[in-house]
Amino acid sequence: MKKIILIIIASIFLLVVRAQKDLPYKLIASIQGDIVDFAVDNLDNVFILTGTDQLKKYSVNGDSVAVFNNVKKFGKVSTVDVSNPLKVLLYYKDFSTIVVLDRLLTIRNTIDLRQQNIFQVNAIGQSYDNNIWVYDEGNSKLKKINDEGKTLLETSDFRLLFDQAPHIKNIFDQDGFVYLYDPQQNVFVFDYYGALRNKIMISGWQDLKVAGKFIFGINNDTLHRYEINTFRVGEEKLPGPLKNSLKVNFTSSRLYALKKDLLEIYSLH
After folding, report:
1. What domains lie within the chain, and their CATH numbers?
2. How far is it, in rounded angstroms, from Cα 90 to Cα 218?
3. Rounded Cα–Cα distance for residues 106 and 119 (Å)
4. Parallel, antiparallel, or unpaired: how do β-strands 141-145 and 97-101 relate?
5. For residues 165, 169, 174 and 177, what is the CA-based torsion angle, rounded to 10 degrees?
């Protein structure tokens, strides 16, 4: 009996040691410099936003690809959306303006939302059909606009749908649905016709991202993963080097962690 117990204890010890050695994250690269924010597209290109609102693009190999320097005309950047690698969106909340860039960060056009009578927008996101989703808090509606700012579709007034109108922070277009995140309430799921399909009871997660069939987020140094099809929630503590990161982002193969003046890139294995 003692021999069996010793074998079990030894096996557990080996599993713990192996788990410590085989962390799911491996540091593969880093970018140093003036970095206040960043975004990553689905090709693992990295977009760095500096303290002067200069936008820099780096390839998956870490090579500098392009720089957007026209930083003073529209004020401070509020949102960088790179979900479409060929079309980068910069949203300037103070001026209610969206600047559309191509893959080399050259301006394609600008959209002044005020000219469309849209004055209160906190969140924007790219749509599957190359248009743009905006949440207009002024009339509590999700709207789809084209590159000229014309409204193509809008939902019902959210004040009629919910007891409390949400304050949307993020918009994601993924696999036939639009996900709107209010950190104080839920993730609201709409179809492409503007009909509410579901509410996912997720709140308090930071750095939330919808990627494939999963919703990822960070809360108290814990990585949370919600599987959309099965409703299962998984979580794991972030290893020491990733704790207290200023921002974390994910792709299918990499994890990105922003520290002060340093962006660390980890492979998932």
Report:
1. 26-203 (2.120.10.30)
2. 24
3. 26
4. unpaired
5. 10
Residue bearing tokens 């919703």 = 215
Q: With 0.85 as the threshold, say if the pTM is over it.
A: yes
- Report the candidate in 19, 123, 130, 29 with the shortest Cα–Cα distance to residue 78: 123
- Kindly state the average pLDDT of the residues 129-136: 97
- The per-residue DSSP string of 194-225 comes to S-EEEEE---S-EEEEEETTEEEEEETTEEEE
Task: Please report the pLDDT score of residue 71 as a whole number.
Answer: 67
pLDDT digits (tens, 9 = 90+) for 86-120: 999 999 999 999 999 999 999 999 999 999 999 99
Quote the pLDDT of residue 96: 94
| Angle ∠(124,191,247) on CA atoms, nearest 5 | 40
Could you tell me which residue, 5 or 245, shows the higher pLDDT? Answer: 245
